[in-house]
Design goal:
The complex is a heterodimer of chains A (135) and B (740).
Chain A (H helix, E strand, L loop, with lengths): L1 H8 L9 H25 L8 H13 L7 H19 L5 H10 L18 H8 L4
Helix pairs in contact in A: 2-3, 2-4
Chain B lengths: L1 H9 L4 H5 L48 E6 L2 E6 L4 H7 L23 E4 L6 E2 L10 E3 L3 H16 L15 H9 L22 E3 L9 H10 L4 E4 L6 E4 L12 H5 L5 E3 L12 E6 L8 E7 L2 E7 L12 H5 L13 E3 L5 E3 L2 H14 L5 E5 L5 H13 L5 E3 L28 E5 L3 H4 L1 H14 L2 E5 L10 E4 L2 H8 L5 H7 L3 E6 L8 H14 L10 E4 L5 H7 L5 H4 L5 E5 L14 E6 L11 E4 L8 E4 L5 E4 L12 H11 L9 H11 L43 H4 L2 H9 L4
Parallel strand pairs in B: 1-5, 15-16, 15-22, 17-18, 17-20, 18-19, 20-21, 22-23, 23-24
Antiparallel strand pairs in B: 1-2, 3-4, 3-5, 6-9, 7-8, 10-11, 11-12, 13-14, 13-24, 25-26
Helix pairs in contact in B: 1-5, 9-18, 10-18, 10-19, 13-15
């Protein structure tokens, strides 16, 4: 309950004035998400499919995916969406398979994700080939 | 449906005549319309109907105008050649006559009486299927007399037909259902018990519910005439009449599944398909078969991701309307033993599923570590032309020329197309009047071609001679010998069969593809060509020198130039790329060779593979296949691929990019554009590209011929490729039906 209570206190922070402030708020969000993970594990009964540290790395991977963004306004909006998603999860507005599909197995940001620089320089054909047979 | 609509249109109750008849003299319970009460008086009602288009595109060809006669069908004049039956005349005139026992490819029985029509000046309705049309005949198909006759026949048929349509597999595609809706009465007078008949055991393929049988005898006629086995027959007389095998015996024909299609009711249905699906919930995909080199036209019926059954499609040039049992029942192999993830064999010898990225990286890395001449690629017998083109381009770009297709033997000669095709055409075989089969057993290798030969033998008493191991034929033949010695005798004109060949108008020689694998194949082929020259087998208007290929991929592989010798190159291979090749002998392969197996089934070669790349089966991809007579056809995807599998040519295209030798095509059209540069005939779909060069241009060989006898190409008819080997039904067939 504590996580929920903590989340209820969370207000959407005011717009960040600088990148420094945006960075601080991002870290703040990450910490909050990490703090709520034990209760998430409990709500969705995730102990047999994933560990807290795996979920943590999923969250950080999701955040790092946007590492190249340099506009504080955009970061603010992404943070807003992230807070919304987190509160949806903590308030049990999602179901177990949503969480598993999106954060445990999912293609984007899941644990099996294969992000990064490997795909750079390969043709459009190969990119599509890796995702599906139908293109 | 046509039946239904037309009959509804024609049989609207004539209310006025009913009302003007205040006291019906006799009240008949059974009549569905009052017009039927007075069949005699309503002849005058027939008005001129508009001309109709012929049924199912029926066409008549009248070679000699003197032979044409004119008949009138429902008042509409139609010209037909002499000798047609009344039913055929009606079809030409566009009137579909209901029938059960009549089938255009079988002999006429005339025992169901459903096709009764009225003919002017004939005292009784006549059975149109058995009555020859005579000049000036006035045929009436929708008069009250004809309708009442049909209604009566229908009532008799339904008398002993069980009311189990809800649990009958034929339900929804049943001739009896359709025609009783269209032509039957709306009520029955039958109150007694229906008869019941003991079911017969016809083997693992055909399920029988003999109580449903209406004794049309189509199956009996099919078995004796087309399949050529005397297994089925009529037993008993009158109401005790039954279809059955005379003794407790299974139906052992490679075409037995076709009795399911020709049975107009649910008496003979498919045993593997029993209670699996209803026909209206299936999606039909018109595609072609790849289990042999004939390329039979089939329809794959699927529900969701599952292939439920395979049915034949009409193609007069190739398979008429039959398919072999292997084609029809191999589909359960598509669900078993499938490869669904890329896998790498670990140091412990076990396969571990990996991502495509990792699998391709490993393949590309190893391919670069070996010398180009140690890279060998072998296409399997089910490969389509697109993937073989990609495989050849990929290996050539890697610097290797060792690309081949299994079954094509040692350095196949692909320079002249007629040297590996069935030059006479499958349908052209019907014109032949003498056959010489050299080392081929068409009944096992290509049942549809065997059915053509049988049809010819039955129709024209053509002579068949056979050289090869003792084999089972379902038509009259002479077994001349087992080996090349007999061939030499004929080539030198010493053999008594020479006179038959010489006197034949259109002699045909069919050479089996198993001979490709002999060391002395050039000598054998030159002996065959000598025979051809000697007996005028090749003329301007007739090319009777044929090769009967074994596998679906062979012809396209030769067209595309996959012509290295696998048996020799395997010995020095360090990197072996098997594209669905399961029948190659890997014993000679060095132990340190790296084997990539790309295919859809975990079959023989997987035991030796180091990396598995899952690909899609013929039912899941679009591909070009060239059949034995050189006609290229397309498969159409019916179901989605299994698991993480990819199409064959896409996998090779992806491997090539990861290996740094990117192939220049990204889609199917581009691959086909590349094929156009190599073998444009592969793109002329559904037509047969005849070859213009003659075999005479081939240089003469002088080789030593060994005298060891020819070998059988197919050991087990039911299990010849990875799909059929994975099939449970085919396993049952081979244990129950093969003659031991």
């Amino acid at each position: 309950m504590s996580a929920l209570a903590a989340l209820k206190m969370v207000k959407v922070p005011p717009n960040s004035a600088s990148m420094e402030e945006a960075r601080k708020q991002t870290l703040e969000f990450f910490k909050m998400a990490c703090r709520s993970l034990p209760s998430v594990m409990e709500i969705y009964n995730l102990d047999d499919v994933v560990t807290v540290s795996q979920l943590r790395s999923t969250i950080s991977a999701q955040i790092r995916k946007n590492a190249h963004i340099a506009n504080p306004k955009v970061i603010d909006l992404l943070l807003f969406k992230a807070t919304e998603e987190l509160s949806n999860i903590v308030t049990h507005s999602k179901q177990r398979h949503h969480v598993i599909g999106q954060y445990v197995l999912g293609h984007e940001g899941g644990l099996i994700q294969d992000m990064g620089t490997k795909d750079q320089g390969i043709s459009e054909f190969l990119k599509q080939f890796y995702t599906s047979n139908y293109f | 449906m046509g039946f239904l609509l037309r009959s509804l249109r024609c049989s609207k109750p004539l209310f006025r005549s009913y009302l003007s008849h205040p006291f019906p003299a006799h009240f008949r319970w059974i009549s569905s319309s009052s017009a039927l009460l007075r069949p005699e008086s309503s002849v005058a009602l027939a008005a001129d109907p508009p001309p109709r288009t012929p049924v199912a595109g029926a066409r008549v060809h009248i070679p000699n105008p003197d032979d044409a006669i004119e008949v009138f069908v429902d008042g509409y004049p139609v010209k037909i050649p002499k000798g047609l039956t009344v039913l055929q005349a009606c079809e030409v005139a566009g009137v579909d006559i209901p029938r059960f026992c009549y089938h255009s490819r079988l002999s006429i029985a005339g025992n169901c009486r459903m096709c009764l029509v009225e003919v002017e000046k004939s005292p009784k309705p006549v059975a149109s299927c058995a009555m020859p049309a005579l000049p000036g005949m006035k045929i009436k198909t929708s008069t009250p007399v004809a309708k009442k006759a049909r209604e009566g026949v229908m009532e008799f048929l339904l008398m002993n037909h069980p009311l189990d349509c809800p649990i009958c597999d034929q339900g929804g595609e049943c001739d009896l259902q359709d025609q009783s809706m269209a032509f039957g009465a709306d009520r029955g007078r039958f109150t007694e018990m229906k008869r019941s008949v003991v079911d017969k055991n016809l083997g693992p393929l055909v399920k029988t519910v003999m109580t449903r049988c209406i004794q049309c005898t189509r199956c009996v006629r099919f078995a004796t005439e087309v399949a050529g086995v005397q297994d089925l027959g009529m037993l008993g007389r009158g109401s005790g009449e039954e279809i059955g095998t005379y003794v407790e015996k299974l139906m052992t024909s490679e075409l037995s599944g076709n009795v399911i299609d020709i049975c107009p009711v649910g008496a003979l249905t498919s045993k593997p398909f029993a209670f699996k699906a209803r026909n209206w919930e299936l999606k039909g995909t018109e595609t072609i078969d790849v289990t042999d080199a004939v390329g039979s036209n089939i329809r794959i019926d699927s529900r969701g991701p599952e292939v439920m059954r395979i049915l034949p499609r009409l193609n007069e040039e190739i398979n008429e309307e039959w398919i072999s049992d292997k084609t029809r029942f191999c589909y359960d192999g598509l669900k078993r033993q499938r490869l669904n993830d890329p896998m790498i064999r670990g140091p412990d010898g076990r396969f571990k599923a990996v991502s495509w990225r990792d699998a391709l990286a490993v393949v590309a890395e190893v391919a670069h570590q070996v010398k180009p001449e140690e890279i060998v690629g072998i296409a399997g017998q089910l490969s389509d032309a697109e993937s073989m083109m990609a495989l050849k381009d990929f290996l050539n770009k890697m610097g290797s020329e060792n690309v081949s297709c299994e079954g094509n033997g040692i350095s196949p000669n692909a320079d002249l197309r007629p040297t590996y095709l069935l030059n006479t055409n499958i349908s052209g075989l019907e014109k032949a009047d003498a056959f010489l089969l050299v080392g081929t057993q068409p009944r096992l290798e290509a049942p549809m071609i065997n059915a053509r030969i049988r049809k010819t033998v039955r129709a024209t008493q053509a002579k068949v001679a056979y050289i090869g191991p003792p084999s089972d034929f379902n038509y009259d033949h002479q077994h001349l010998g087992t080996g090349p010695k007999t061939l030499l005798d004929i080539a030198e004109g010493r053999h008594p069969f020479c006179s038959t060949l010489l006197s034949a108008k259109n002699p045909a020689i069919i050479v089996g593809a198993k001979i490709f694998e002999r060391k002395d194949k050039d000598a054998i082929f030159s002996a065959v060509e000598t025979i051809a020259k000697l007996h005028k087998v090749i003329r301007a208007d007739w090319n009777g020198l044929n090769v009967l290929l074994l596998n679906a991929a062979q012809a396209a592989a030769l067209d595309l130039g996959l012509v290295s010798s696998p048996s020799e190159s395997i010995r020095s291979a360090k990197f072996l790329y098997l594209m669905g090749a399961d029948d190659v002998n890997l014993e000679k392969l060095p132990d340190d060779a790296f084997v990539v197996y790309q295919g859809h089934h975990g079959d023989k070669s997987v035991y030796r593979a180091n990396v598995i790349l899952p690909s899609s089966a013929f039912s899941e991809k679009e591909g070009t296949y060239e059949n034995a007579e050189g006609c290229s056809q397309w498969t159409v995807p019916a179901v989605p691929t299994v698991g993480d599998a990819r199409d064959d040519w896409k996998i090779i295209r992806a491997v090539s990019e990861v290996a740094g030798v990117r192939l220049p095509y990204d889609n199917l059209e581009a691959v086909r554009a590349r094929i156009r540069m190599v073998a444009p005939n592969l793109l002329h779909v559904d037509e047969r590209e005849s070859s213009t060069v003659s075999v005479d241009m081939k240089p003469d060989f002088q080789h030593q011929m060994s005298l060891e006898p020819f070998e059988a190409a197919v050991e087990n008819f039911y299990m010849t490729n990875s799909i059929t080997r994975a099939s449970k039904i085919m396993a049952q067939c081979s244990s129950m039906l093969l003659k031991k």
